[in-house]
């Protein structure tokens, strides 16, 4: 799982091999939590890319993109995800 400075900062890692190992454990825990959320919504985590309309992406690629988008950067503000109401509206328009 790749990381950049913003991701290291978000997960309170200093860039050392030990902190990268901690980072990977945090990613594993995050991915496990996402798996629980998927099951609670009636599908397995392996089906998440398809459920999100990204059938050729891997689950880890989606997790990486989520972290990259939501981790604050020095050059830009943190990106906020749209509300469920906004997403529902977009779905109605699509």
Q: How is the topology of this model organized?
A:
Layout: H1 5-10, H2 17-40, H3 48-51, H4 59-70, H5 84-93
Could you explain how this protein is built, in words?
It is a single chain. With 94 residues, the protein is mainly α. The protein has one domain. The chain is 60% helix and 0% strand. The chain has five helices and no strands. The protein has helices at residues 5-10, 17-40, 48-51, 59-70, 84-93. The mean pLDDT is 85.
Which terms would index this structure?
5 helices; mainly alpha; 94 residues
Order of helices and strands: HHHHH
Structure summary, number of beta strands: 0
Distance between the termini: 33 Å
Structural class: mainly alpha
Total domain units = 1
Average residue pLDDT: 85
Q: Rounded to an integer, what's the Rg over CA atoms?
A: 15 Å
Stretches where pLDDT falls below 50 for ≥5 residues? none
The best one-word shape is globular
The number of helical runs is: 5
Main sheet properties: none
Strand fraction equals under 5%
Helix content: 55-70%
């Amino acid at each position: 799982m790749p990381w950049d400075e913003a991701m290291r900062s978000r997960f309170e890692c200093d860039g050392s091999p030990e902190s990268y190992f901690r980072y990977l454990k945090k990613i594993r825990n995050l991915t496990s939590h996402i798996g629980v959320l998927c099951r609670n919504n009636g599908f397995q985590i392996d089906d998440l890319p398809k459920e999100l309309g990204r059938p050729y992406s891997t689950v880890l690629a989606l997790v990486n993109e989520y972290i990259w988008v939501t981790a604050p950067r020095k050059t830009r503000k943190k990106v906020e995800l749209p509300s469920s109401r906004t997403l529902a509206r977009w779905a109605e328009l699509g």
